[in-house]
Specification:
single chain, about 70 residues, mainly alpha, 3 helices, about 60% helix
Length: about 70
Amino acid sequence: EIPKPIFSRPLSEAAMPPFKAIAERILAELVERTAGAGAIDFTEDFAHPFVFAFWSEVLGMTPEEAHRLRG
């Protein structure tokens, strides 16, 4: 029998709803923040903030901790 990957359970479809809810909320906030900008730098204004906010929350950082880390 082939052993299951170490991340198979934490990243299974059944484990995704909390992550999906976090991602959807952060994405909605970013869309609202950038909607009236006309033009944005997708990487700087959307992608990097999304990834940082998502993982900060998943890892349990407070907003203050995340702000200090982000600089």
